[in-house]
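hey m, so remember when u said the tokens were messed up on ur end? i reran from scratch. heres the input so u can diff it against urs
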Amino acid sequence: MDISVENNVREVAALARDAYGEIDLWFSNAGRTGPSLPADLADNALWESLWGVHVMSHVYAVREVLPAMLRRGDGYLLQTASLIAMATEADKAAYSVTKHAALALAEWLAVNYRRKGSKVSCFCPGPMLTSMLRAEDYPDDHPVIQRARTPGQVADQLVQAIDQEHFLIVDSPVGQESLGSKSTDYEAWIDRLAVRFG
């Protein structure tokens, strides 16, 4: 179903509660991509769609499950952003901006609710061999495909990070490198990307 529609998120939560009882952990893990520049910069419908999937679906889930978690004094919000949230994707403006927003929302939730009974983590994966990546139609020898991991390869790391209650969960050194570069010399980081992609 379309989880950028708030009522659909409510229905998913209701199904989970009916089947299993109270929701202990909510994993917001939907995503989609879109065309590259310049098409995506000019496409309002794409921006609205990606904002709905990458940001508002997380907001709707939080509205639905957080109050009960706070009442119980226990719960976990696990949100997926992307490696792109710590770097940027130079040819996909809407994807890059909305993934940055997803990370910002997770940070805000952690600041406000981690000490009030709801743990928060943000998963920022690198390329993963899913149908979304395959839809990009990269050849098998493309660097993105070569460094992509399967969901199964990432699962154990993700579970361990949740168990340790890490906020930022990264499965690729590229994300940590980008974050480090930004924090030490933002101007040089921008310049490097501009030379590479500009």
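this time it looks ok to me. The chain has one domain: 6-172. if urs says something different then somethings off w ur setup not the seq
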